[in-house]
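Case study: 2-hydroxyacid dehydrogenase.
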Amino acid sequence: MDKASIYITRKIPKTLLSNYEEHFTFRMWEKEDESVPRDVLLEEAKTVDGLLTVLSDQVDEALLSQAVNLKVVANLAVGYNNIDLSAAKKHNVLVTNTPDVLSETTADLGFALLMATARRIIEANEFIKNGEWKDWAPYLLAGADIHHKTIGIVGMGRIGEAIAKRATGFNMNIRYHNRSRKEDAEKNLGAVYSSFDDLLKESDFIVSVVPLTKETENMFNKDAFQKMKSSAIFINISRGDVVEESALFEALKENKIRGAGLDVFREEPIHSDNPLIGLKNVVCLPHIGSASDDTRTAMIRLCLDNIKGVIGGMGAKTPVG
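Here is what the predicted structure looks like once written out:
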């Protein structure tokens, strides 16, 4: 019996495939830091049984209508806004993602980004490297305290709760906004449910961990930034499209808020002419929320297990929907 064929849209260590080669043949885009060209992806999808994709790969009607053998798309991320779920359902293609395995790692990065922005860590590092440190001064690179301040978490899912746990170690007051109340988080972490407007007005740090939906797109807009404290710091580790970047730039440039730490952007990779890059009160990262060796390996293995489960008839571990 012929083995099922799988196409992987980004280079990954081939050693991770060894436990699956009994069941599958693999083809792979051999570049780690460059997206598979659209025409190549369309051509590969025509014949394979499974796809292992990343967020920059668009899996839409045009692709799915030609992928006559395709049974599963395993997305290497929690989010899946790059995949047309209705088209996948129409063509009987199951979509999976990688929740849980990256929650703690992403929360680590989110809190590190919060701390780096508040304490001006990147700016201080560049200050020394550029030879600008001439003497000590009382307010040299003075940043914002984190301990005993109020953190407002927008989106209290797994990652949001993990960030809240970290905030307890800094004796922070924890507020959150979510589609539904999280009684366990309220009981175990002392988190207080707030309306979105109240959270914006009362928080010293606002952290976005929301999924991208029609309701959350552009939720951080001019009106939202105007409601924040002038001392507030905004952190986004969710999706770039939840932020109106022009409004964020204006708020930062005019000191309507103190700073921002951003791991995600509307267009990725971010272009060098994006005005946010030029602001000293912004820390920009290249979408590395889950980028630890252990976690990325666990994510890839989960994708492969999902593919094996679907094609083998046992079902997916983490199906979407």
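For the exam, be able to explain this: The chain has two domains: 4-101+293-312, 103-284.
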